[in-house]
Amino acid sequence: MRKRYTTIKDIAKALNISVATVSRALRDKYDVSAETRQNVLKIAEELNYKPNFNATGLVQRSTHNIGVIIPGITNYYFSTVITGIQEMARENDFNIILYITNDSPETEIKIAKNLSASSLDGILACVSAHSNDCSHFQEMIEDGLPVVFFDRVAKSVDTSKVMQDDYNGAFAAVEHLIGCGYKKIAHITGTKDLSLTENRLKGYYHALEKYGLPIVPDFTIHSGFSQKDGENDVNILFENKWNTPDAIFAVNDRKGVGAIIALKKRNIQVGREVGVIGFTNDPISEIISPALSTVAEPALEIGKISCGLLLKHIKKSSFPAEQVILSGELIARNSTQRHELP
């Protein structure tokens, strides 16, 4: 049996006043005397009254619910971001409601359309990998629902965004490969048009240019973000046996792990013959053999900061859009340890 909670009707009955008067007293309205308000607060405390945010939202236009739209929750990065979001939301008495797109733009649009009539104070969103049209998020904002993006952001929508430093992280990853002696470096990256993909690609190109290494068009492959995509990309890279890379920079660790698996299936020694580096610092990067070098992303901080920004937008509709970029950390492991070949 569900526990019965104290309502404003109970307070009104105890003081022999109207429910409307109790409601106005709890909201500190000007037309309630100081004495009445003090009595209401006293009884509310005695009866252990807790406000029903969904009910008060009908009057105050606040539900204390935040929607989080993400591609999935089965990988380390998103689960860690959600932890950060939840910590910040809980500190501010907000709840989070998850909406999973499974990286489908159609699902994302459907969710967005349905949310316009739902009881939410704001939205945190990481766009799907194949989403080119983000007008549905713009419509939300125009309807008065605050939206903040994290990780994969919509470039065309003017609102706050929180990201890791994709450009400098990618540059550091490729520079590390070059410093280890690799000279023919490929990049297995994400889908086109995502700012994340574009910025990591720029970092990759600029590192090659800085150290005078050639940019080989066939060494850049766009696909999804999964481990299987990583395997498939490496198989494409090694189809032409006369022009193969000696190192691979993967857009994330899942693709990096896929690259290692594909290389091992081809009896290629990872590190010694072909170096591999990823981006995220997923726990699997330490479990795979050899351990995967990577650029660690501040996922927990991204969650906390993006949620904090959304709360500012919720509390103040005129709060200006901010763009926050957080630095990563290069972690060298065995997958980029190269030794003299016999």
From TrEMBL:
<keyword id="KW-0238">DNA-binding</keyword>
<dbReference type="Pfam" id="PF00356">
    <property type="entry name" value="LacI"/>
</dbReference>
<keyword id="KW-0805">Transcription regulation</keyword>
<dbReference type="InterPro" id="IPR046335">
    <property type="entry name" value="LacI/GalR-like_sensor"/>
</dbReference>
<dbReference type="InterPro" id="IPR010982">
    <property type="entry name" value="Lambda_DNA-bd_dom_sf"/>
</dbReference>
<protein>
    <submittedName>
        <fullName>LacI family transcriptional regulator</fullName>
    </submittedName>
</protein>
<dbReference type="GO" id="GO:0003700">
    <property type="term" value="F:DNA-binding transcription factor activity"/>
</dbReference>
<dbReference type="GO" id="GO:0000976">
    <property type="term" value="F:transcription cis-regulatory region binding"/>
</dbReference>
<dbReference type="Pfam" id="PF13377">
    <property type="entry name" value="Peripla_BP_3"/>
</dbReference>
<dbReference type="InterPro" id="IPR028082">
    <property type="entry name" value="Peripla_BP_I"/>
</dbReference>
<dbReference type="InterPro" id="IPR000843">
    <property type="entry name" value="HTH_LacI"/>
</dbReference>
<feature type="domain" description="HTH lacI-type">
    <location>
        <begin position="6"/>
        <end position="60"/>
    </location>
</feature>
<keyword id="KW-0804">Transcription</keyword>
